[in-house]
Amino acid sequence: xxxxxxxxxxxxxxxxxxxxxxxxxxxxxxxxxxxxxxxxxxxxxxxxxxxxxxxxxxxxxxxxxxxxxxxxxxxxxxxxxxxxxxxxxxxxxxxxxxxxxxxxxxxxxxxxxxxxxxxxxxxxxxxxxxxxxxxxxxxxxxxxxxxxxxxxxxxxxxxxxxxxxxxxxxxxxxxxxxxxxxxxxxxxxxxxxxxxxxxxxxxxxxxxxxxxxxxxxxxxxxxxxxxxxxxxxxxxxxxxxxxxxxxxxxxxxxxxxxxxxxxxxxxxxxxxxxxxxxxxxxxxxxxxxxxxxxxxxxxxxxxxxxxxxxxxxxxxxxxxxxxxxxxxxxxxxxxxxxxxxxxxxxxxxxxxxxxxxxxxxxxxxxxxxxxxxx
Length: 374
Hints:
The protein is mostly helical. It has helices at 2-23, 40-48, 120-146, 155-175, 179-199, 212-229, 232-239, 246-295, 297-341, 346-357, 369-373; strands at residues 53-59, 62-67, 69-74, 78-83, 97-99, 105-107, 114-115.
């Protein structure tokens, strides 16, 4: 057990050290290897932002990065495809295209262009999709070969408890007997968010789920499913709440409609904010080494143990947050879908019909509430 803990600590130390290497990139200039003042905000926002190349770190002023494909459409020039290395990290233009101060591709002639490039976040998404397909297909092949009655092994043994948890703790309580219809969606959302959260914790990893465009797309998918799953009972209570005076309906209906759109917005902001905050905190703690180092080399080296200890603690916490945020997004999606597909309570309708046929009055017809329910 002690050996396992030592190995785990060594791996975590390597990961946090990777963050340190990434943060130290601003100490070296992009050319001539000249040193410049450390800019923590530039390092942090450079990591959490999207880029047209996958940058890992700088070494002696030379960046180590993987160029990504640039795919742009110009109304006059047509489609252009080339490597982002042509921009030389934003210092040069290529075929009339350049990177602006926000790292966006613009046309030098000022014409609006369409950018379909494979950015860092898109590349990370494709990697996560490939990993999910490889893992899930291998597990599915084992089930197909050995059947469901044989003891699971490997990834099958790791994933089965998670799948059962999503089924029993998320789908069944919120969706009832219709849960199987939505299990593919819930499992896909859970594992997609979880694996991207974990990939973002690797040194140089993309801040995929900390991008509000990504969380907005995921929330839009949930919103579309909610809308198309809604039954007559759901829409009836939304636009014409039963048993409510007309004057109150004028106030209640707009609130209900607004709440319908607030649900996906809450999903979007919750995932985005939590994942973005984790990346910012870890990089901020690492950046403290270089901030103190700019004051005094002794202060910088003295802060290293404190910074690494807190960063390792935050890394453990982010491993937990990665799974929790995937669970929360999936669970809330199931809750909102469950509200849309909830059937009318037959007990209440029978109760109302009984009262209509047998009104309870004080003029010789008295019946207890228990008898009405019976």
